[in-house]
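Form P-L/3: holo structure prediction, ligand D-mannonic acid.
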Amino acid sequence: MLLSRATLAQLPGTVTRHGRAVDAIRTGIVHFGPGAFHRAHQAAYVDRLLDSDPRWGIAAVSLRSGGTTDALKAQDGLYTLAVIDRAPGMQIIAAHSDAIGPGEGARLRKLLASPEVRIATSTVTEKGYCLAGDGSLDFAHPDIVHDRARPAEPTSVIGWIVAGLGDRRAAGLPPFAMLCCDNMSGNGAKLRAACIALAREQDAGLADWIAGEVAFPDSMVDSITPASDAAFLAKVQAALGVEDRAAVQRESFTQWVLQRFDLPDGPDFASVGVTVTNDVRGYEQAKLRILNGAHSTLAYVGLARGHETVFEAMSDSALEAMVSRLVHEDIAASLKPIEGFDKAAYADAVLDRFRNPEIRHLLSQIAWDGSQKLPYRLLDTTREALDAGRGVARLAVPVAAWIAFVRRKAEAGEAITDPLADLLAAAATGADPVTAMLAVKPVFGARLASDARFGAAVREAFQHFAQGDVTPLLSR
Ligand code: CS2
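OUTPUT (holo model):
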């Protein structure tokens, strides 16, 4: 039997259920990309919001694969959120009022033009936005080529946002606010520029309207959400007494910092724990560079040292000490000061979250999409360190580790999960992998590709990975 409205009443008392009338919930938010992170993070905030304001039910939209939307449909939008540390517990989330899978474009189009829908949100990961290395829309991306040619049948999230906004403008409706919830610096501003650029190809009036009328607030999102593996789903089933194909797990820590934006009579996100502020950039930078930068370092160096999870990598004292120095010295030095924000305390708290034995967060999951992640997580820091005349020997270690990771995978004939997989595999298996990889412009840009100091530091670190003797690098 599946979790659903019909089976809700038979769940054991240990599982928390909301007490509100589900029938009253309306769809006010359209969300692109209902993966585990969205279901564990944004949806949990909205679930609380719905207790007092039923207007903000979420329609979950999957443009590519229908696994999650099928599960949500079969379960009346319900699923379990398991918090797996400090205050462990399971609660049923009922924030999704609708689910739209691939092939349901007509329904999506109608929903995006509904006056009740006032907000759209997205977690489609970095690569989902079809951006080029400089953060602008990549007009050579196959999905964007398609959407330019056939704007009425979009395939990319950018194409869908532009089509939805175009319909609203044509109908004389106000736009929806567009909230990007992915780990990119200046995420709202980048999404805004991409939407305007695509709209400009079709209709200059629409592009100007988007530029003038649509809010694209920046945001910082944070909660460690390991993938829902079979063991976890079995645990949920044992606790619930029914099957739940959309269950998610996360740590108890959760944070969402959202740039204040204008939406008359909009949702009171602050009332459910969202930090609504005028300046998100400092938070966003600290989170991306410290947490995600350390994560990617642990992933690539940790995998080279035979570790499987973040917890195991953090239990490797030499690696832990190097990551701690990287964060406290190299990364902290690059951060903009934020009033009332203690960088060192923040870094310590993040590293402490990584030492959580309850969380089995696979390094291989974090290692995905390195070409999309490294620029925000480590390379901006590196570029700024070079400009300021600071050393980059430690920052070169995760970069060399990534090159070694790609090389190992390519040589073993294993799939590399990365939109640039073929290009990277060819570069990393050539005679001079470091030069070839640093020449990948969408990742390193012209500045890092040609910086002799950086090149030498990466080359030197890479030798250690190539020879399988990484330990000397960890005393840096
Ligand atoms: C991780 C993130 O998978 C990854 O690349 O670094 O998903 C990380 O767990 C989250 O950003 C934490 O908020």
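COMMENT: The pocket of D-mannonic acid is lined by residues 183, 222-224, 291-292, 295, 365-366, 373 (CB under 6 Å).
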